[in-house]
Design goal:
6 strands; 7 helices; single chain; 210 residues; 34% helix; elongated; alpha/beta; Ribosomal Protein L4, Chain: A
């Protein structure tokens, strides 16, 4: 698949061949859904946990003898019906993480990139370099490259503080290193702005020779 290469002014400067083994594979919706659910589950956190009666301190001695007092029988002060006792059926730690083989995760990425490419949602630029952190400049560049987009994902190949700071102030755009490309971000952002250097990073680990 050949696509146009633009500069930051939106002018066509060249064409590039997108590898068919990455951007033209059969789209497996079930595989992409599995990878998406796995990523969301692994990011899930448990915010609280209560202690059961076995985790509370004390309660070794029986409060009073079993018979003869006229009171109800009790075995431990850590019972859930006592003040200061454990919590019955309270929230606890649960492992939400899911496992998925690396080859399946990468296959899901290829499917997502192929879907993006077929829908013309990948914008290839020669480079994304700015001389100073300027949000207005990045805003104009993104809307020149893809004026009909709602959310932009800008891929980078190395650390660029000026670019990251400029994009960070936009509510509908984000930067991501090409080596950390994931199914969640591809599903969230409708336009992927991909410099040629970032394309080389993607080919290095998703290509047939990787």
């Amino acid at each position: 698949m050949k696509v146009d290469v633009h500069n930051v002014a939106g002018e066509k400067v060249d064409t590039v061949e997108l590898p068919p083994d990455i951007f033209e594979v059969p789209i497996n919706v079930g595989l992409m859904h599995q990878a998406f659910i796995r990523q969301r589950a692994n990011a899930r956190q448990v915010g609280r946990k209560s202690k059961t009666r076995s985790e509370k301190r004390g309660g070794g001695a029986k409060p009073w003898r079993q018979k003869g007092t006229g009171r109800a029988r009790h075995a431990s002060r850590r019972s859930p019906i006592w003040v200061g006792g454990g919590k019955a059926h309270g929230p606890g730690i649960r492992n939400w993480s899911k496992r998925m083989p690396r080859q399946m995760r990468r296959a899901a990425l290829r499917c997502a990139l192929s879907e993006k490419a077929s829908d013309s949602e990948i914008v290839v630029v020669d480079e994304m370099v700015i001389d100073e952190p300027k949000t207005r400049m990045i805003y104009d560049i993104l809307h020149t490259l893809a004026p009909d987009a709602e959310k932009y994902l800008v891929l980078v190949s190395d650390q660029d503080d000026y670019l990251v700071k400029s994009v960070r102030n936009l509510t509908n755009a984000a930067t991501l290193h090409a080596g950390y490309l994931n199914i969640n971000d591809l599903a969230t952002y409708d336009k992927v702005v991909m410099p040629l250097a970032a394309l080389e990073v993607i080919k290095s680990y998703l290509g047939a020779e990787a």
